[in-house]
Amino acid sequence: MKQKNQPAHLLHSIAAAFAAALISLAPAAAASPVEGIAAAASKWLAAHIAADGGLSNGFSPGSDVGASADATIALAAAGLPVDKPVAYLNEQVRTNSKLNAGQIAKIALAVHAAGLDPRTFAGQDLTQRMLAAYKADTGVIGDSVFTHALAMLALAHSGVAVPAKATATLEALQSPQGGWAFGGTDAPDVDTTALAVQALIAVGRPANSGPAGRGIGYLHSLQNADGGFPYQSPSEYGTESNVNSTALVAQMIIAAGDQPESWAVAHGNPLSYLVRMANASSALRFQSSFADDNVLATAGAIPALLRKPVGR
Q: Which domains does the chain carry?
């Protein structure tokens, strides 16, 4: 009886081995279109690092501090080397005494993204340089609401307490429509609002109620049918969606605990809009009507495509 059962056991073993072989030969799951666009864009961005380690902003020759910080954050999010842009930023901190609060905040966020400590970067404490720009009488850091929110994010993600008045001031600067304006008293815009909401979330304010919740609702009301967002609406310059504003909104949605796909409209969602803005070169354009490869748009889109909010 034992010998009679051996062929059946043998056939079973062969079948199991054949099934295992088929599994091992099956192709690995392909990256999603979003991840694929992010990976290709990251390689394009890395290829545009200049000899000094920085990147141009595309508007003027030579490397730019803000563009280099944005690129550092994007490349770090993609898992690519950032030693060259970090070295450039290190040199700028050591030698450029004219860096403003907004530039310092961007550098601090880039340093944090690179896995370094902004409190000991280039022999300096970047958080103290930001706090030196804090005006105790007004509660504002820097010279704009955008810089103020950026600095709050940089401080919070560096493990440094944000002055309570700075948070209260940001909440008080919210417009009746629910947004925040770059300069504080002008018309609200998408970029400053998306950044302000993330700043409030970073200091522990609830994401879906209070000022942050109203900010999210305001931005939702400005979404275009293509899934993207304009810089401002209404605007005398038009309300066409652009990559940088859309990326900031996508990052805000993720920071609030949601996903950009849940903001689907007639022709897409924030991430699908960003995917459509990728050029054949793998860089992203700023918007449909400006089809050239754009460093700032590419650097701004990558963290959003990889689902990383500002500072995380």
A: 32-305 (1.50.10.20)
Sign of the torsion angle spanned by Cα atoms 288, 290, 292, 297: negative
The number of residues in the chain equals: 312
Task: Inform me whether the pLDDT recorded for 247 exceeds 70.
Answer: yes
* CA–CA separation, 44 and 278 (whole Å): 11
Omega of the bond prior to 234 within 30 degrees of 0, cis? Answer: yes
Alpha-carbon 56 to chain mean position: 18
Q: What is the pLDDT of residues 191-213, one digit of tens each?
A: 999 999 999 999 999 999 999 99
pLDDT at 268: 97
- What is the signed CA dihedral for 15, 18, 20, 24, rounded to 10 degrees? -170
Q: Where are the alpha helices (DSSP H) in the chain?
A: 2-25, 33-46, 65-77, 83-95, 101-113, 126-131, 145-157, 164-172, 190-202, 210-220, 243-255, 270-276, 295-305
CA angle 309, 311, 312 (to 5 degrees): 65
Q: Is the pLDDT of residue 279 over 50?
A: yes
